[in-house]
Amino acid sequence: MDEYPEIRRVVTGHDPEGKAIVLSDGPLPHVTRPPMQPGLAFHEIWNTAATPAPVSFTEAEPTDRHRDTAPPANGTIIRIVDIPPEGEDGPGFDKAQAREVFSAVGLGENAEHTLPGRHPLMHRTESIDYGIVLAGEITLLLDDEAVPLKPGDVVIQRGTIHAWANRSGAVCRMLFVLTDGAFDPELAEAQSAHDAALKAMAGKT
Question: Is the pTM of this model over 0.70?
Answer without folding.
Answer: yes
